[in-house]
Write a structure and sequence with these properties.
The complex is a heterodimer of chains A (593) and B (80). Chain A is α/β, with parallel strands linked by helices. Helices cover 41% and strands 19% of the residues of chain A. Chain A contains 22 helices and 18 strands. In chain A, the strands form three sheets. In chain A, strands 10, 11, 12, 13, 14, 15, 16, 17 and 18 form a nine-stranded mixed beta sheet that branches. The longest helix of chain A has 23 residues. Chain B contains four helices and no strands. Chain B is an all-alpha fold and 80 residues long. The longest helix of chain B is centred in the N-terminal third of the chain and has 15 residues. In chain B, α1 packs across α2 and α1 crosses α4. Classes of the chains: A alpha/beta (593), B mainly alpha (80). Chains A and B meet through α1 and α9 of A and α1 and α2 of B.
């Protein structure tokens, strides 16, 4: 556990930030990102603490800090320096201290409305302008005021600042909902979470012009870091759950299926029922659930089948490991079976000894400290493991897709010839150049794929949009795959930059769900076809080692590329496209669009 | 807590905030003596001191603290 993992000690972080930073910088490889912070009030310490939380997520920021309260001027009338900096992210740190059109008791309803429109128009102008720098924009809404002229009625009277702030926040939410590349940092929720009396600190405001209490800066920075890591595809994907005293109260093997606490009859049962309901909702967001419990499988499953009060059913789990093997082995197997990295897993177990063993043997698995069942939801929710920035149709279907994968694995074992097996899947596909309609999913796939990813280059949505526009210099491709078990959606992307008669593969990613289906051959066939159309004679490619992409180390030579460089961490290749190139995919019926 | 103990605690806080174990404070130490001691770090120092001694500075108290000795005096006054 890092000192920056939830629940963290804000005072400790503020005091020890220098030594914490040193420790963080000593480890791991980082993704480097440029972050511009635009100031509506003092931001010095916000930058310092945000850096810590980003480093903790494996993101190394390079900052550009705006002048004090110059966010509007610097965004609207850039002297060229912001554009030159080329931010990946722009965070606009505004608060209710920046509201210029607040209502006063003498205002008529119309006057208040006019003020509201004016304030919102300014907000929109700033965000639109920020977007024009090609960055992902993160922007606050407004926290509730420090005092209320009307007392409780402040929420009712149109001249009340509470009423005004609620309306303005709603307008902001509706606006952001229609925008790509803009994410809300909900300081209205955050400030109520910590309490307005803790959030507002007048001494800090008068003395240093901090719009929030310095004590709360770690909370703010953590919230921002969660948005950034989510936008960069660093969310967790799956939860592994213990059963006894985690999903229900008691030990099912000892107490019997009727003896466990679940359902709303008694307080203990209620807490587990609510936790199960929460997990069930997570599956609706594409988060996969798995069981890892020391139990007899048949007995363990009764906890779901024979207790109708349990919100979860056996079908809600992808892997159900109830056996007597060490949990670390079961968890490693779960990661293998659903084909995701161990670092995408969160393990919830009430037993501190089990948690510690898993932390020791599988250090990349996240194991939150959970105390009692009423804390479980909080531990998952506040930590932001599943912070959502984009949500696509494929996310909603992901659980279904992984279940289908398990069925495919069963089907595969009944065939002796692999090609026969692939033919039996009745696969069809669609492949074409990047298009605006698929932009969001393409960006997500590029940023989330770690295994079949030769270069691990990450692209912001704005960069993908630029490639869509530039058909002269880029060959791009997205590809969909459907088989008899279901639709996998868009599961592969490809970007090559063309220079003269050579095309260099900048990026090639494929979801692990569709490995070894000859889908990669179908993509290569398409790309070679495009190269021929454009008069390209050679294709160069590279493989850059990461902790996760070793499985594709020898891929290019297996499809006929020549190796031009072969080192431990990098390989380079060239393919002289033969006149009589023979298509490699013979099992998927591909439609070129 | 006597003044020597307060100075010892302050020294600890300074070492943490500036991540420098070699800092030795005296009553006369000022921002000129410690390289990274700017207005931003001044805030962090004050916040850390408030937490450590469980006290709350008033606006007027901190406006013109001229050296570490003045800081120690203020802490001594506030913890009563």
């Amino acid at each position: 556990m890092s000192v920056l993992d939830y629940p963290f000690d804000s005072a400790y972080i503020l005091q020890k930030k220098k030594s914490i930073k040193k420790e963080l910088l000593a480890k791991d490889k980082f993704i480097e990102k440029k972050v511009a912070i635009m100031s509506g009030s003092t931001i010095g310490e916000i930058k310092n603490i945000l850096e810590l939380f980003l480093l903790n997520y494996g993101i190394k920021p390079e900052f550009r800090v705006g002048g004090y309260n110059r966010y509007f001027e610097e965004l609207m009338f850039d002297d060229g320096s912001l554009k030159e900096f080329g931010p990946d992210f722009i965070y606009i740190h505004t608060s209710n201290k920046n509201l210029e059109n607040l209502p006063v008791p003498q205002d008529s309803a119309d006057e208040v409305n006019a003020k509201l429109e004016k304030e919102f128009a300014k907000y929109k102008t700033v965000v639109e302008k920020a977007l024009s720098y090609g960055a992902v924009v993160i922007v606050n809404n407004y926290e509730m005021p420090f005092y209320r002229m009307y007392g409780n009625k402040d929420a009712v009277a149109v001249q009340g600042v509470v009423n005004y702030t609620i309306k303005l926040n709603m307008m902001i939410a509706d606006y952001i909902a229609t925008k790509d590349n803009v994410y809300l940092n909900d300081i209205n929720y955050l400030s109520s979470l910590v309490g307005l009396d803790n959030w507002h600190n007048l001494e800090n405001w008068y003395l240093y012009k901090y719009a929030l209490s310095v004590d709360q800066i770690p909370q703010l920075a953590f919230s921002l870091a969660k948005i950034v890591k989510s936008a960069l595809g660093k969310n967790k994907k799956s939860v592994v759950l213990d059963l006894d005293n985690t999903l229900w109260g008691g030990i099912i093997g000892d107490d019997g299926v009727e003896g466990i606490a679940i359902g709303n009859e008694q307080p203990a049962g209620m807490s587990y029922t609510e936790f199960q309901s929460y997990l069930k909702k997570l599956t609706g967001l594409g988060i996969m659930l798995n069981v890892c419990s020391k139990n007899e499988e048949a007995i363990a499953k009764q906890g779901f089948t024979d207790r109708k009060e349990a919100p979860l059913s056996v079908d809600d789990f992808i892997c159900f490991k109830a056996n007597w093997e060490p949990k670390s082995i079961n968890i490693a197997n779960i990661a293998k079976e659903i084909n995701i990295g161990e670092d995408s897993l969160v393990f919830i177990d009430d037993n501190p000894a089990e948690r510690e063993i898993v932390r020791q043997s599988l250090p990349t698995v996240t194991v939150p400290e959970v105390k009692s069942p009423e804390d479980y939801i909080k531990a998952i929710d506040r930590a932001g493991f599943f912070e959502i920035t984009s949500f696509t149709k494929d996310d909603a279907k992901r659980n279904e897709m992984y279940k289908q994968n398990a069925q495919r694995a069963a089907a595969e074992s009944s065939f002796t010839d692999y090609t026969d097996y692939l033919l039996s899947l009745n696969m069809t596909g669609e492949i074409g150049a990047f298009s605006t309609a698929h932009c969001e999913r393409i960006t997500q796939l590029i940023n989330k794929t770690n295994q079949f990813n030769f270069t691990t280059r990450r692209y912001a949505q704005s960069e993908v949009e630029a490639i869509i526009e530039d058909k002269q210099n880029y060959i791009s491709a997205y590809a969909k795959l459907v088989d008899k078990f279901g639709d996998n959606g868009i599961t592969a992307c490809f970007i090559a930059s063309v220079e003269g008669t050579n095309a260099n593969i900048d990026l090639w990613v494929m979801s692990c769900r569709v490995f070894k289906r000859h889908f990669e051959y179908a993509m290569l066939d398409y790309v070679v076809g495009k190269c021929k159309e454009m008069g390209v004679k050679t294709i160069t490619a590279s493989w850059l080692r990461t902790a996760k992409n070793v499985i594709i180390k020898d891929f290019y030579e297996s499809v006929g590329f020549e190796v031009t460089l072969d080192t431990e961490d990098e390989k380079r290749y060239i393919l002289n496209i033969p006149e009589d190139y023979e298509v490699k995919n013979k099992v998927i019926d591909m439609e070129i669009v | 807590m006597n003044r020597t103990e307060i100075m010892a605690k302050l020294n600890e806080i300074f070492c943490d905030v500036f991540d420098d174990e070699d800092i030795v404070l005296s009553d006369d130490t000022t921002a000129d003596d410690i390289e990274d001691w700017d207005s931003l770090e001044q805030i962090n120092l004050l916040v850390a001191i408030e937490k450590q001694f469980n006290i709350k500075f008033q606006l007027a108290d901190v406006a013109d603290l001229e050296n570490v000795g003045a800081m120690a005096d203020l802490v001594e006054k506030l913890i009563g």
